Amino acid sequence: MLRYCLVALRAARSNLSLQTTLHLPPKCTLVGSQRFFNSSSVPTIGIVEYDVVKKLPREPQKLLIDVREPDELTKTGQIPSSINIPLGIVSQELSASNEVFKSKYGREKPQANTEIIFHCMIGKRSLKAAEAAAALGFKNLKNYEGSWTDWAKREGLPK
């Protein structure tokens, strides 16, 4: 695997296409521009729509994480039942002890199979957060692609 990383690094530095530079081994996938994952161990990140998110206050076993910055939330508001963990600290917070997580967020720390739905303003940062959670071993990950923009539109709130 190190050999493939070195080739990817050289290709990135020389602006060569990684697809033409690499011959990846079976079951390996190039994700993004320079990240490699064994596709047999990477969970698929699902997509959820407004209707699923709307029901979440009645489904406390699922966790909705808003990865926007706190100042964004003060301007727009928050989706009910979501907790705020900014993208920059998602990995750190999901790696925290059960006690620390519960004291900060008032909820049990998610387990590897807990359904976690991420959202942000338009769905891009939330996808990055889901990828970070996958790297930590979480398996039941979803992205609310429409995120706050879709929620606000459907709820009649300012964007």
Automatic annotation (TrEMBL):
Matching SUPFAM superfamilies: Rhodanese/Cell cycle control phosphatase
Residues annotated as domain Rhodanese: 58-156
Record-linked PROSITE patterns: RHODANESE_3
The name this protein goes by in its record: Rhodanese domain-containing protein CG4456
Species for this entry: Drosophila pseudoobscura pseudoobscura (Fruit fly)
Lineage: Eukaryota, Metazoa, Ecdysozoa, Arthropoda, Hexapoda
Gene: LOC6897332
